[in-house]
Amino acid sequence: MEDLSDQLPFRHRDVVDRSGVLTKRSGEELLNGLTTLRADLAAVIARLQEKVGGVRILGRVRELFLEQRDATGLALQLGGFDRSIIEEAQFPEEGGDQIPVLATLPGHPAHEDHLVAHDAQRFSDWIGSDAEHLATRVFHKADQQLFIANVNRLPAEDTLGIDLIYHHVNRDSFILVQYKKMGQVGAGRSEWGYRPDGDLDDQLRRMREVEEACTRLEQNPPTDYRFVHQPCWIKFCKSEQVAPKGDALIGGMYLTREHVEWLRGRPGLATGPKGGELFGYHTVPRYLDNTTFTQLVQDGWIGTRGKASDIIQAQIKASLDGSRALVFAGLIGDDTTQAERTRERRGGSGG
Fold first, then answer.
1. What's the half-sphere exposure (Cβ side, CA atoms, 13 Å) at 319?
2. pTM above 0.70?
């Protein structure tokens, strides 16, 4: 017990001498101290916590799986499909093999009928078959089909993060969402924030090149209206220690590439207490959350408005060559109208 006490920050050392319910912070410090002294206890503690509080994210394999699960659920939601199936995804063991989220879901992939066979084969050709970890699935709803692929060419420890590419076939529109992790920062680690690393400038430059290519392919005048017709977004999301319960998506902030660069050039915005760059809830005054972002994509207010299919294959290759895992989703079929979706959410009433 003395050794354990010595492992804890001074203000938390009294937890070894008293009984009762601990605060969240004291409990975390106590568990960290235990696993520092006895590394073999980490797996035991993780199994106990999963039984009562959800899956613990202890290392890179589960961390990447969680991001992929989130991007897969987001793709389902963007297409207007029920995302609850991701609740049944089975997390891999830490230190074990990497497994695509889709490969852990119950049942078997739906057979591709004549309506989607051509598009699904085209999507498969875009992705290729040389990925170390690849799983695909087609989801059906009324006259719509959603093709989703989880693909990764590198081991988890060499993978920098997740890209989601969402392609609406009938609109020939697409968006790219790149995931960035926020860690706990500030006094007592009470805030969430992302400090730009060395890769951010290169990734923003790549995004600008994608957007410039999309602009060149736009019809003049455009045939459709968008609030935002550039495709590239960044989701700054919490680095979770426990997977969100059920089918909940990871909380986070959605910002366009242009918005990120604008914030970086404004003193006092996206700036931490010591003057360094920091993207967090307390430094970014406005952003989109999961609900708002999803609604705008579903209603066609966000996404490219040119020949997106001419760009997507190259973007898939760029993501994988950039040491990033990929979730690709292609929606096939006509949209329901916004009014029809509203009635559906309200239980079919006409009010």
1. 28
2. yes
